[in-house]
Specification:
With 278 residues, the protein is of the alpha/beta class. The protein has twelve helices and seven strands. Bound molecules: S-adenosylmethionine.
């Protein structure tokens, strides 16, 4: 097993990942519309072979499995042992739905073996995205498709702005700059995605701007999630904020959510759906 032991590896394998386990059902509920958007553009057929990149606990792998039927195969890969353990627990009795601990940047599958590659928010965390996409291309059959969704714009995504603005307001810590480094917004620039995919051998690249809604759980759960997952949570973690300030930020987030919930029962979400052909 070859893995890059970098910042991302530690994030997805250490204490920081525990929130993704605890709130797994809530996050999957939140991303229900995102999954629909991902799958409505892929023509999955019975018996096909699918690669799910950065599969996490396997929600999209399982959806794909239902579409390709008993003899279709899903190979789901991720670098996170805790998330893969939950994947195995959830889907242990399902044949031909396999998850593997692999870093796509370091993994060369046999060439021409998958009909489709998919990812729901699993492709923004690469230090070497060109390698990751080249490996994806090589593993696809001729005319195979690669479809993924990624975040488009920090400022329009309330799930990220609400807590990050609270942290900034209460601590004066700046919201990090979003560039091409690994992180939720590393693929925010369309031209960068185009270049990466072209260079890795893809053609017919289509990048759809999509505005959708993230579904919400209860205010308390939403507040807890925002304090542990996303940009604001990263600012808290990386700056070692004291307990008192943490509680103030949490109250601030909670108040904002109370106001938001009076108006709407969703977060505005701006994403790209990207489709490319080998
Ligand atoms: C935001 S989560 C999305 C998980 C899942 N696709 C979902 O929608 O629930 C990003 C996932 O990408 C995985 N990941 C990050 N870098 C990776 C890499 N180099 N190779 C494979 N998976 C990676 C993480 O471990 C994490 O599970």
């Amino acid at each position: 097993m070859i893995l890059l032991k970098n910042k991302q590896y530690y994030y997805w394998n250490e204490k920081s990942v525990s929130a993704w386990i605890k709130y797994n059902n809530d996050m999957n509920y939140k991303f229900e519309n995102i999954s629909k958007i991902l799958f409505e553009n892929i023509s999955l057929k019975k018996n096909q072979s699918i690669l799910d990149i950065g599969c996490g606990t396997g929600q999209t792998s399982y959806t794909a499995k239902k579409k390709v039927g008993v003899n279709g195969t899903i190979t789901a890969i991720d670098i996170s042992t805790p998330l893969l353990n939950l994947f195995k627990k959830k889907y242990k009795n399902i044949k031909n739905l396999t998850c593997l601990k692999k870093d796509i940047q370091k993994t060369r599958f046999k060439e021409n073996i998958f009909d489709h590659a998919i990812s729901r928010f699993g492709v923004m965390f690469f230090e070497y995205p060109l390698l990751a996409f080249t490996h994806t291309n090589q593993a696809l059959k001729k005319n195979g498709t690669f479809t993924f969704v990624c975040w488009r714009n920090f400022r329009c995504n309330q799930f990220f702005t609400i807590p990050a603005n609270s942290v900034k307001k209460r601590t004066k810590i700046d919201i990090p700059e979003f560039n091409n480094k690994p992180g939720p917004f590393s693929l925010k620039d369309k031209s960068y995605i185009q270049t990466l995919l072209k260079k890795s051998g893809f053609r017919k690249i289509i990048i759809d701007n999509i505005i959708t809604k993230l579904k919400l759980s209860k205010i308390k759960t939403e507040t807890d999630i925002m304090m542990r997952i996303g940009v604001g949570a990263g600012m808290i973690r990386e700056n070692k904020i004291d307990k008192n300030t943490y509680d103030i930020i949490k109250r601030d987030v909670n108040n904002k959510l109370q106001k938001l919930f009076k108006k709407q029962d969703y977060y505005n979400a701006y994403i790209y759906r990207v489709t490319a052909i080998k």
